[in-house]
Amino acid sequence: MSQFKFDFTFDEPIVTIEEDDSTRIHGGLFIALYDEESLKLYLDKGLYGFLMKPVMAPKPTAQSRYYAILADYACSREGTDVFFFLKRKIVYGGKIYGNKEVGSFYLNGQTSPLGRKADADLFWDESLRKRYFATDKPGVFKVAKDGGDKAQPFMFQFYQNENTGKYIISDDLYFELGKYPYPLPSNSMQGMGFCTLTPGEVKTLNELISQSDKKIEFEGLGEIDKKGEETVFNDGLISLDEDLVNEAQLEFTILASLEPFADFLTDDYVLCRQVPISPFKPSKMDRADICLYSMNSPIKNGTVPNVVIELKKERATKPAYEQVTRYLKWLEAITDKEDFEKVSVYIIAPQIGRIRKSAVDLKYQNKIRMYSIENEDFVELIG
Questions:
Q1: 1: closest CA among 232, 230, 242, 237?
Q2: Single pTM value for the model
């Protein structure tokens, strides 16, 4: 796919979201903010960009959160619901527009390797805000005068509707989610700037928001405007053949487009990442790298994944197999027989090591498949 750009008129999005989708499940994004002024700006302009350190080198370091942040962005598709979390309030933003089949986000300027590769214009520049301190680099600013450089190389854009600005108190959500005897992404968001939401969480939030009479006024309160030409992400900018900086890069690449795996991931899915697949624990809950929720055959209202994918940066070996066995043990415990039959697990890595049947628990052998990216094929247990 070649690079493409869209010319937007800023009053209306070029993409039309289908309004009659009451029976269709959606994913969601849960975004933490720290001040109401920023919230009103993003609601007014219909966009959001995570503040992160600009990456001016050709590649980020292995320790950088660059690809982990991109992996969150890559989970979005047109129609994904955006929710903001601010001081115990959960505020509805709107529905993301852009791409239907690949990650739906926009490249904003030259402060990331991806933005430079796409020759993306800077269409949103928060250095113009009075609360921030501009630098001599376009799109780069400081939150505090003596703080580190920040940028917003990636942006979500969303289509506002009648619920935009309406909010609930966060306890209202967690009272409802307390009915599920297992943790969900919004239960374990602590320490994260934003996280993906399962279809079940999104459905619950939308029902609560639609019933709420509380609303934040935001119209006309954004102090800056968009400008320039916007560049939407496309999967021609990335490849599974690239040398991996870290595991999060593989996570981003797969989430950005499932097309390379269309032979076995054949359903329509909502995508989530870093999902707890574990009993409630004080800390260190097991998290699956990627979870896919079927739009056609959801499990437990879309709170349990149909597909779990565990990734390894290099070679997947026995510990990876043992890890996904733990996932399946827990998923079997929280589902009935019919739903558990819908669950499948994949280990995906550049290489799959020789894993002997005698060395692992074979109880879930028929549910676990191991895929080698280098061979573009599945690998079986040996012995």
A1: 237
A2: 0.91
